Amino acid sequence: MRHFFSLLLLTLTATFSFGQTVLEYNLEKDAVFTVKQEAKQIIIQELDGATHELTNLIDGVLEFKVLGKRDSIYDIALTFKDLNLMMTSSIQGELMNVKANEVDETDMQSQIFNSLLNKPVNIILAKNGDILEVKGGDSLVSQMAEASGLEDEFSLNMMKKSLEKEFGSEALSNSYKQMTFFYPKNKVKIGAHWKNEYSGKLQAKNVWTLDSLSKESANISGVADVVMDVTELATTMKLTGSQKTAITTDIDTGFITKMIVEGISKGASTMAQMGDQEIPTTIESTITYELIAPEVQTN
To answer: pTM value?
Structure first.
């Protein structure tokens, strides 16, 4: 009888623990992950019955190389291999069209973004995907500013301040947490929920769900309340909204194979030349990250 109860206890323990899975990064030194990123952002502003629509299209190729592991964190080199940006206005037409790999010596923007390529920055990544630190972003910003060709110190410093908001160490950390930071601290089973949040220009409070699991992959979905608070020299923007995320990851490495982030936020923006007048503003965005073969590049 004692053996029967012991067997029953073992069976119940196995039953209740079945399906509990550790979701985290498990990366090997020298492993390389190449990710294609595509983003579309539509900004709609309405003023006195008139509408202005600004469309930003960004695509690029990012390389993540694992430099090593210490304790429970990874040292990773992040390198921009390609970056293309296009900005169009419903009123003014094309405002920017830069292909970083096709440098134009007569175009300041082309030279700036070309200098971004193949200059690695170091990421300290926790097993749950939290980016603990980025090293080298500030040096990258200095190189980009110098590539502008500006010579007077005041203009050069202004350029650095502007670039820091996108490519400085803190900005890169906040930006790429969206792509990496979605794993729970504890074991979970299918249907389980957990929370995390990240800050920066886009602040998000996320609720994640493990939707399905197989020997090859995990499917995770997320919903979030977001706050967008942007302050530039000539523009401010304060918006609130929601975001939903669909992720497929490799079960062995924990690295994404595909990720789609869709968001919509509404609020108001102001422009320096218009004083304190608030302009109703809506931003709709879709960002896709997809693991690709290292030799594949964007057009």
So the answer is: 0.88
